[in-house]
Amino acid sequence: EAGVAQSPRYKIIEKRQSVAFWCNPISGHATLYWYQQILGQGPKLLIQFQNNGVVDDSQLPKDRFSAERLKGVDSTLKIQPAKLEDSAVYLCASSLARDRERSQYFGPGTRLTVL
Amino acid sequence: AQSVTQLDSHVSVSEGTPVLLRCNYSSSYSPSLFWYVQHPNKGLQLLLKYTSAATLVKGINGFEAEFKKSETSFHLTKPSAHMSDAAEYFCVVSVSGTYKYIFGTGTRLKVLA
After folding, report:
1. Chain A residues touching residue B46 (CB < 8 angstroms)
2. Nearest chain A Cα to B6, which residue?
3. Contact B100 A45 (CB under 8 A)
4. pLDDT in tens, A4-38
5. Which residues of chain B have pLDDT under 70?
């Protein structure tokens, strides 16, 4: 079974530029998550989708971050404009809706450096 | 509100000796608890999960964890450390009803030759 795919793996941008990350979840997983992991910290949930609807985006900085999940499969996370403090690893995860424990499976992440 | 506390930010053990990574949780409900491992430049991998079916949970790579309700703990153990176990370990609680994950701050395990 293929895992969660993310691209790019690394991205370096200047502050105030925009950037987009892509995630393809495990086939059949209805729930998709985006996390931000700052160096030395645990991941923090940014947004959670159930199919193509948003379940939780309470921690998403909506003035600069946006995310979408068209057709309930792939998802993109965008930052516009980027700030220095956005430097982090952005992790995508997915889970089966019918798994009571909702075990989450993570992709390799995208490491963003904002200069 | 649910939360987890990982009591040690760094743990060093010698290869072949036991590993103990400590995690305490706070939850108003019967929690779902997980341990994940993160190797450098790799994604998070699920080690094991507590599903309320059994208090002693066995995971991959020889790891296991015991759920102790009276102590609100979910410590991760392994009888004999291997060099490949060196990584960051995260204890996670799932928020009841939403399945939202709350991560601990992580414990970095170092294995000495």
Report:
1. 103-105
2. A42
3. yes
4. 999 999 999 999 999 999 999 999 898 999 999 99
5. 97
Q: How many CA atoms lie within 13 A of A9 on its CB side?
A: 4
pLDDT tens, B78-96? 999 999 999 999 999 987 7
CB atoms < 10 A from the CB of B28, how many? 8
Q: Select the residue from B99, B100, B105, B108 to test the A interface by mutation, using most A Cβ atoms within 10 A.
A: B99
Please answer whether residues B14 and B72 qualify as being in contact, where contact means their C-beta atoms are separated by less than 8 angstroms.
Answer: no
What is the Cβ-side half-sphere exposure of residue A60, based on CA atoms within 13 angstroms? 23
Task: Write the pLDDT tens digit of every residue in A48-96.
Answer: 998 889 988 999 999 999 999 988 899 999 999 999 999 999 999 999 8
B49–A48: do the CB atoms touch at under 8 Å? no
Compute the Cα dihedral for A9, A25, A31, B5 and give only its sign.
negative
Q: How far apart are CA A91 and CA A104, in angstroms?
A: 11
Residue A26, φ and ψ in degrees, nearest 5: -65, 140
CB atoms within 10 A of CB A32: 28
Alpha-carbon span A50 to A75, nearest angstrom: 12
Which residues neighbour A58 within 8 Å (Cβ) at sequence distance 6 or greater? none
Burial of A55 (0-12, 13-18, 19+ CB in 10 A): middle
How confident is the model at residue A101, as a pLDDT?
A: 65
pLDDT score recorded for residue A52:
84
